[in-house]
Inverse folding.
């Protein structure tokens, strides 16, 4: 590891296929240009219980707009060779397609892995060996409510990166918590990079990135996706600008 | 004194009933659920805890509820029909059995705030009641549409000191109220106890709520043995999430001679898109922290359920029911809105008992049973709630002249 140069990563979440496949592809490639290291393609779900009002609204609008799982397959095909791509969705979206089938498809499309907020460690056990075999990462979540023993249990088998939830709450809103202790707990048990997510935006990114290897940004981008006063091109420009500002902030 | 017993249908350590159940929640909630699991294991068979629960069951709820021999409908159908009168409980339904026990558990865990989701408002009222009784702060989540439909229950909850949050997301009904309750819970995991209203949600809720509602089956079994000297041939209950059914079934599932029959909401008919039959028309999937049968589309998006009765208007079902269905340990049928309405009038006029719309589904099934299932047979119907709450809606639906 290079200790002299800071190289903190930026993970960018977008609601996939919203408003359409081509837009998502353009946005993903532009995010890559702006410095995003990993793309999270968010699968809209009817009941997104880990999400706050912004992503929840984007989920709903996307579904009303006719989002289908097929959309995410098409986007992945076009962007996965340019940027490390993960599928972020609620477990039912994957389970309903059959975990084996969807894993094979993810592999074929060049996807790196899955981020599934309602699949905690215990429930993931039956699927881990299959993911491993296909070299797909299942990202583990650590929450500020976890004690040291729980952190140890959760991170012992970690692939890709560890998703540290910044506060006790849902995406896009919440009160900052002191994560020093929990970051120490994670680092003690795992070499896997730790990225912090929930409530990360241009204002908070620098502070939140302290002690971790990168940040995950969702609501700050999705807010722009929902802004009807902007054209498609303006949305892509604005989101990319935010991404570039955040990337700079966390590495300054 | 009622104390639950281990059941051969108990889930495994992680809450799995076969493939169903489990804990599909954000990591933030896992420590809370693991703690609850540990604490519940401590009190599940603990005499002191159950002494307290039984005290409130008897003195506050008014238990045991009668097992009433419904002579008039029995004569009409040629069967011997008993009604388990959960409608006579304080607050008018079986819901209070569960909220009393969960409220006491919350206190024991040192939590001063409780939350609940509610559809028709019955579970919200039962939670607000217990919160008032035990001095707990109470927030109830209710879909905006239900808030309008059930104005009176909203007022009841507020009168009891609860805050009612009108949920404006998604379909604005029970499913979304539960989403919002979970979001609130994730945000306040450290000091808030979630009183889930049915045998659903992440482990240990399905087992815990079943244990709390199993007082119904425990009493009914003793009562029928005393009155008739034998077990019933069948036990019938309506199913939304499935707690009143799980409650009465639990003490009969081990008896091979007894058929347990759960009645789902057929809405406008099982071949339309407007019903609540997750078992009949759904497929396994994950919602609200558990795996069970769900109404969903080909992409796994959850469909909206429909029923005339807000208490049955839910696209999922408790995981133990899913398990029992696959094992064929219980039978599941459905009743349409119209059949339920007819039974609502029938029971009112024949027995002078006005059932809740939910319970009317169970009553209605009596009329659909085959002759050989009725003739000289002994049947218990769980009358899970009273119809007072449905009067305003009934007025617009039924022409009595």
């Amino acid at each position: 590891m290079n200790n002299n140069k800071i190289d903190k990563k930026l993970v960018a979440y977008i609601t996939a296929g919203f408003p359409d496949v081509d837009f998502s592809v353009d946005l993903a490639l532009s995010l890559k240009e702006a410095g995003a290291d990993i793309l999270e393609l968010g699968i809209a779900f009817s009941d997104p219980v880990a999400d706050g009002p912004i992503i929840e609204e984007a989920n709903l609008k996307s579904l009303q707009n006719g989002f289908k799982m097929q959309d995410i397959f098409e986007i992945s095909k076009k962007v996965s060779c340019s940027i490390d791509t993960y599928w972020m969705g609620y477990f039912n979206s994957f389970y309903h397609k059959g975990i084996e089938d969807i894993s094979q498809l993810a592999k074929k499309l060049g996807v790196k892995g899955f981020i599934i907020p309602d699949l905690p460690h215990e429930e993931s056990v039956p699927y881990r060996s299959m993911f491993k075999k296909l070299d797909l990462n299942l990202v583990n979540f650590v929450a500020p409510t976890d004690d040291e023993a729980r952190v140890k249990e959760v991170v012992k088998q970690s692939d890709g990166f560890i998703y540290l939830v910044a506060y006790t709450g849902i995406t896009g809103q919440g009160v900052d918590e002191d994560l020093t202790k929990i970051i120490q707990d994670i680092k003690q048990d795992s070499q896997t990079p730790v990225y912090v997510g929930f409530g990360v935006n241009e204002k908070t990114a620098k502070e939140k990135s302290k002690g971790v290897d990168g940040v995950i940004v969702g609501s700050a981008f999705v807010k722009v996706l929902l802004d009807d006063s902007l054209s498609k091109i303006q949305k892509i420009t604005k989101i990319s600008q935010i991404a570039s500002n955040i990337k700079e902030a966390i590495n300054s | 004194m009622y104390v639950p017993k281990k059941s051969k249908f108990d889930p495994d350590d992680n809450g799995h009933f076969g493939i169903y159940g489990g804990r599909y929640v954000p990591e933030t909630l896992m420590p809370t659920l693991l703690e609850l699991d540990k604490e519940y294991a401590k009190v599940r068979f603990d005499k002191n805890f159950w002494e307290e629960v039984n005290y409130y069951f008897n003195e506050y709820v008014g238990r045991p509820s009668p097992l009433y021999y419904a002579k008039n409908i029995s004569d009409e159908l040629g069967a011997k029909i008993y009604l388990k009168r959960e409608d006579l409980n304080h607050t008018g339904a079986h819901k209070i059995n569960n909220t009393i026990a969960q409220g006491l558990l919350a206190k024991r865990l040192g939590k001063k705030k409780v939350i609940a989701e509610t559809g028709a408002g019955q579970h919200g009222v039962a939670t607000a009641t217990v919160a008032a009784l035990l001095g707990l702060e109470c927030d109830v989540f209710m879909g905006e549409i239900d808030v309008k439909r059930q104005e009176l229950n909203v007022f009841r909850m507020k009168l009891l000191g609860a805050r009612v949050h009108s949920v404006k997301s998604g379909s604005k009904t029970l499913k979304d109220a539960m989403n919002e309750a979970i979001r609130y819970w994730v945000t306040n995991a450290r000091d808030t106890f979630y009183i889930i209203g049915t045998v659903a949600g992440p482990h240990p809720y399905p087992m815990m709520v079943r244990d709390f509602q199993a007082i119904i089956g425990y009493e009914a079994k003793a009562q029928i043995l005393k009155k008739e000297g034998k077990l019933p041939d069948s036990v019938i209950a309506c199913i939304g999430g499935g707690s009143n059914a799980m409650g009465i079934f639990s003490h009969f599932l081990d008896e091979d001679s007894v058929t347990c029959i759960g009645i789902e909401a057929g809405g406008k008919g099982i071949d339309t898109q407007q019903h609540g039959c997750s078992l009949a028309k759904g497929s396994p999937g994950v919602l609200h922290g558990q795996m069970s049968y769900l109404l969903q589309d080909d992409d796994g998006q959850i469909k909206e359920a429909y029923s005339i009765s807000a208490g049955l208007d839910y696209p999922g079902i408790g995981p133990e029911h899913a398990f029992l269905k696959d094992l064929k340990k219980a039978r599941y049928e459905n009743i349409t809105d119209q059949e339920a309405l007819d039974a609502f009038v029938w029971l009112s006029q024949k027995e002078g008992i006005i059932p809740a719309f939910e319970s009317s589904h169970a009553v209605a099934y009596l009329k659909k049973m085959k002759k050989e299932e009725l003739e000289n047979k002994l049947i218990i119907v769980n009358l899970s709630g009273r119809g007072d709450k449905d009067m305003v809606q009934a007025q617009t639906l039924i022409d009595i002249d």
